[in-house]
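Sharing a chain and its predicted structure for anyone who wants a worked example. Both blocks are below, sequence first, tokens second.
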Amino acid sequence: MQVPERWYNIIPDLPLPLPPPIDPPDSDSSSIELLNRILPAEVVRQQFSIERWTNIPEEIRKAYENFGRPTPLLRAKRLEERLNTRSKIYFKYEGALPTGSHKLNAAIPQAFYAKREGIEEVVTETGAGQWGAAVSLAAGTVGIKSTVFMVRSSYEQKRQRRGLMEIYGAKVIPSPSSVTNFGRSISGESPGSLGIAMSEAIEYALQNGSKYLVGSVLDVVLMYQSVIGLESISQFREIDELPDTLIGCVGGGSNFAGFTYPFIGSKIAEKFVAVGPSEIPKFTSGTYKYDYPDTAGILPLIKMITLGAKFEPPPIYSGGLRYHGVAPTLSMLIKQGTVVTKEYGEEKSAEAARLFAETQGIVPALESSHAVAAVIDEVKEADKSGTSKVIAFNMSGHGLLELDNYIKLYGER
């Protein structure tokens, strides 16, 4: 099969109109207009598009192909055998991409559009490092510089990911940092958060004339990630199989949405399960309201499930899941009941990852291990009810660059 020719945008297929981003009521300037200053112009245009389909430029499709798309859809037969189940388990393996995760799908088009505008440097934030690595590679591929503000706890925990970014040519800065005014305003003892790093990256972009590349939450990023689900539908049809249940982990929502939204829009599958960490309990304790995507409150307010932009998450190893909010479209689908949610602690997720590695040979990213834990529970529930299901999940990345953290987790048992 080939790389999809179009991205899918779920907004026309949502059950209700999506609440628009708004400026803070006490603001003297337009934070929405700010997007035009910090994002590539084409990214802004696509962010506010309500078209169901957007053509993927040929240069971007070629880059996708060069870096390994389509990624494989694999059946976890040995895991099925270990669980002694009649259900079938499939996974879309985004860890096959060179940076080890799905994030490259959104970095490539944004870097391409920035280059087309004549931009010389792009900047972003990263939690666990997958997004930062993707931006570093994408920027280097098109010949522009990259700067990455990496959440301090991950900067210290995930040296291999930091090293990968630097190999690709990025300047990596631990956040909170002394580089920005907002970073200097945060306590030096803070482990950091995605919201803080995001604020620093945006301030840096405004100060230096760079363009900010966004890694999750915004509609345009979820659209770029739709290549995952579109490929998966074609791959399932090639084997004359369709899934009953789809599962993915959620930080901001990009890998879950990229995998499931084409299925939701096509009305394929019956159950969609979003999985988060119990240490950052957005699903069980979050509120559906307008909130800032970033901690400093620079960006427009968006309506989402949130723990609050000032929430400081604990420094769990699953750095990509430490974001305080959930993408607006996914928040709506959760509130409307289209998507159900589960939360798991890092210890249980790490044990699920060990079982997956023992049976399938692939070490999941710590973020993806939460989805594996949910898959195992779904299988057990199906077996208990005497049914068999076809369950598919998005293996959003591999864990080969965080083996030190797995060793620490297993040692902490």
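Comments welcome. The chain has two domains: 6-58+102-219, 70-99+227-411.
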